[in-house]
Amino acid sequence: MFLYMFPLWGNGSSAWLRALAAEMVKDGHEVAIVAPEKRKLPNIKHYVVNPPQMGVFVGNPELPNAKRYQDMNGVELGEIYTSYLDATLPAVKEFQPEIIHVFHTAFLPGVARIAKILYGIRFIVMTHGSDLHYLTQDGRLIGLIKDALRVSALITANSAFTRRWFLKMFGTEWDRKLRTIPGGVYLDQYKCSSEQMKILDQKYGLKDKKVVLFTGRLTIHKGVEYLIKAARQIQGEVLILGDGPERKHLEHLIKLYKLKNCRILGYMKSDERIGFRTFYGRADVYVAPSTWKEPLGLVILEAMAAKTPVISTRAGGVTSIIKDGYNGFLVHSRNATEIANRVNQLLDDENLCKKMAMRSFELVEKKYTWNHIAKSFEHIYEKHSSSTSEYLSLVKRALKNNNRNK
Question: What is the CATH number of domain 2-184+370-405?
Answer without folding.
Answer: 3.40.50.2000
